[in-house]
């Protein structure tokens, strides 16, 4: 008998208080599904994923998971009570003989599992939860912002691992490059509805924009009909009240439909405004060096940052990016050399730990108790770039409602904390913007707006980020810190740096390994290598033609997965569903065989002394 989908949601509805998160949501996760789940912060993505994991009970609807299917969920705030170390927590679901799986995942994600659980930071706890999930290898992985708190090398390793896995997964992420590389289907949670496109995230935004344009046209037609029906209701209702109740009901239904159409969430009203004038030279570092004990952070670095520059600092965790930022901002003195600031410098800092926010304070207090923002004698107003604004009105510009104004900062989600910190920064006048991991927890729409604002910002930007797409869109120069005290400057963003460095990052990749090890860990070999001499004529021909066969099979698999993603197919046409499931299993088995054949030929060529 053909296998059923790994997971089905039918008619799922859930409300929190008077807010409906989703209504009548349907979705299917097929075997091997690679799905992006996207939507605005607060739209209910994480809650929907918890429903999928069985951690939240919906108000209505059905959750179907076949017997024997293992579903794994990456916990955002894992409970480490009862575990002495992160390793004890990560290894708990596995028998001792499979502990190597945990160690392999921990190495790829660069997490020290010997860290005592009570002393672990939030980021270390989340990485341990990700290690635990990957080592367990469930049939379906539910990953909510897995790249948060990962450095560029760990993201690269995770992307390769997920690309090679045969498990299905659903991803929530703000990282466009990560989503585009991995997904083949996209679910959009929008105003309580789950919409889907049977293509990956790379095609999502164009599809979403087309839908919004179509909705706007439909809304215009609907409003015309409402105006016509409303005139009829006013002018003719008294004479025909009894026999036209149906027409009145349709008018009411149209008005309700219009209310639904226009319930599109707005964008945050973020703006930097005019910046105070600074000198042309912003920061100059001359021969600066810094060590912590025997470890060198940077050696004899000289750097000039001019007005209008947007410099991104990239590199693995621990390479010294934040330390270098603090040296450039004169928060830490270098061991050698010196740092000079230009005249008229007014900095604003967005720190990755959101340390500027007091978790016990309310959102209201976070603004009004800031000496730089409070209007003298008016506790309900803040100064926004020199003009007074009511606290609630200003918070609304950043998508907070009046009820949240008196809520504690500690109750906010990660994305909401990021928006509140941006609200504080954008209220002030500044000409140097320091952004340390600004993309963590922000939804894609807010990231879009932030990117646009930075592009138009008249001041100078220092950016630390692991988000490759964000760097590409923002940076005019990229400073790579490999972690060996060097600092390598490249013009442009991430992709420009890769091109200038011969196609690879200027620091070692955790996925750069021998083909034999790639086969052992399940990572997909690079099929784009050039054919080399040393193979027989038949083997050479096979080596050249295999990539085309593999790509054809991948296309067939994608079509079958799209067909099986239809939530009603199983009930509507069982025979068609069974046939598609059987063909999908056969195609995947054939794909695995062809990839192993290609790898064997590549290894044979390499064993003859060729580079492949």
What does the model show?
The chain has 612 residues and is of the alpha/beta class. The protein folds into three domains: 7-70 and 138-206, 3-Layer(aba) Sandwich (Rossmann fold); 281-500, P-loop containing nucleotide triphosphate hydrolases (Rossmann fold, 3-Layer(aba) Sandwich); 515-607, Helix Hairpins (Orthogonal Bundle). Helices cover 41% and strands 20% of the residues. The protein contains 19 helices and 21 strands. It has a six-stranded mixed β-sheet with strand order 5-6-7-3-8-9, sandwiched between helices. α13 (444-456) links the parallel β18 and β19. α7 (204-240) runs antiparallel to α8 (245-261). The longest helix has 37 residues, at 204-240.
Break the fold down into its secondary structure elements and pairings.
Blueprint: E1 7-16, E2 19-29, E3 34-38, H1 45-53, E4 60-64, E5 71-73, H2 86-91, H3 99-109, H4 122-136, E6 140-144, H5 152-164, E7 168-172, H6 176-182, E8 185-190, E9 193-197, H7 204-240, H8 245-261, E10 281-292, E11 295-306, E12 310-314, H9 321-328, E13 336-341, E14 347-350, H10 363-368, E15 374-375, E16 378-384, E17 387-390, H11 391-396, H12 414-427, E18 432-436, H13 444-456, E19 460-464, H14 468-474, E20 477-480, E21 488-491, H15 494-500, H16 515-521, H17 537-564, H18 569-572, H19 574-607
Parallel strand pairs: 3-7, 3-8, 5-6, 6-7, 12-19, 12-20, 14-18, 18-19
Antiparallel strand pairs: 1-2, 1-4, 8-9, 10-11, 10-13, 15-16, 16-17, 20-21
């Amino acid at each position: 008998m053909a296998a059923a989908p790994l997971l089905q949601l039918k008619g799922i509805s859930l409300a929190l208080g008077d807010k409906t998160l989703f209504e009548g949501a349907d979705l299917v996760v097929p075997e091997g599904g690679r799905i992006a789940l996207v939507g605005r912060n607060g739209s209910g993505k994480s809650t929907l994923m918890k429903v999928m994991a069985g951690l939240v009970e919906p108000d209505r609807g059905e959750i179907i998971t076949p017997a024997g299917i293992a579903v794994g969920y990456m916990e955002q705030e894992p409970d480490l009570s009862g575990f002495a170390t992160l390793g004890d927590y990560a290894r708990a679901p596995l028998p001792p003989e499979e502990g190597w799986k945990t160690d392999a995942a921990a190495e790829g994600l660069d997490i020290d599992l010997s860290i005592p659980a009570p002393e672990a930071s939030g980021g270390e706890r989340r990485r341990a939860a990700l290690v635990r999930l990957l080592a367990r290898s469930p049939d379906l992985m539910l990953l909510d912002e897995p790249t948060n708190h990962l450095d560029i090398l760990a993201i690269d390793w995770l992307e390769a691992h997920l690309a090679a896995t045969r498990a299905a997964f659903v991803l929530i992420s703000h990282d466009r490059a990560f989503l585009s590389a991995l997904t083949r289907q996209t679910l959009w949670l929008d105003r309580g509805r789950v919409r889907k496109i049977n293509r990956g995230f790379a095609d999502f935004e164009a599809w979403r924009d087309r839908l919004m344009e179509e909705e706007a046209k439909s809304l215009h037609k609907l409003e015309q009909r409402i105006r016509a029906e409303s005139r009829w209701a006013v002018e003719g209702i008294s004479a025909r009240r009894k026999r036209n109740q149906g027409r009145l009901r349709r008018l009411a239904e149209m008005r309700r439909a219009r209310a639904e159409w226009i319930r599109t969430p707005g964008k945050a009203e973020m703006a930097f405004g005019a910046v105070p004038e600074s000198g042309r030279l912003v920061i100059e570092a001359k021969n600066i060096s810094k060590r912590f004990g025997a470890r060198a952070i940077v050696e004899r670095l000289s750097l000039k940052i001019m007005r209008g520059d947007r410099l991104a600092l990239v590199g693995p965790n621990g390479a010294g990016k934040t330390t270098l930022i603090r040296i450039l901002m004169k928060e830490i003195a270098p061991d050698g050399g010196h740092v000079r600031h230009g005249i008229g410098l007014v900095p604003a800092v967005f720190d990755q730990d959101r340390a500027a926010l007091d978790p016990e304070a309310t959102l209201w207090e976070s603004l009004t108790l800031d000496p730089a923002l409070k209007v003298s004698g008016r506790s309900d107003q803040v100064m926004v770039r020199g003009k007074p604004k009511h606290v609630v009105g200003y918070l609304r510009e950043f998508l907070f409602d009046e009820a949240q104004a008196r809520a504690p900062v500690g109750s906010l989600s990660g994305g909401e904390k990021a928006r509140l910190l941006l609200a504080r920064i954008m209220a002030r006048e500044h000409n140097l913007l320091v952004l340390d991991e600004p993309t963590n927890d922000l939804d894609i729409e807010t990231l879009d707006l932030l990117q646009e604002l930075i592009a138009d910002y008249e001041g100078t930007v220092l950016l630390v980020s692991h988000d490759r797409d964000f760097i590409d869109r923002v940076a005019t120069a990229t400073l790579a810190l490999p972690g060996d005290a060097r600092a390598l400057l490249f013009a442009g963003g991430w992709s420009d740096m890769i091109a200038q460095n011969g196609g690879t990052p200027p620091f070692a990749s955790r996925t750069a390994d021998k083909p034999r090890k790639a086969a052992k860990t399940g990572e997909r070999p690079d099929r784009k290598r050039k054919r080399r001499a040393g193979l027989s004529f038949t083997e050479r021909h096979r080596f050249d033609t295999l990539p085309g066969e593999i790509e054809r099979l991948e296309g067939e698999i994608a079509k079958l997965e799209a067909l099986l993603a239809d939530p009603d197919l199983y009930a509507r046409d069982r025979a068609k569903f069974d046939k598609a499931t059987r063909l999908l299993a056969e195609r995947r088995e054939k794909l695995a065989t062809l990839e192993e054949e290609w790898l064997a030929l590549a290894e044979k060529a390499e064993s003859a002394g060729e580079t492949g």
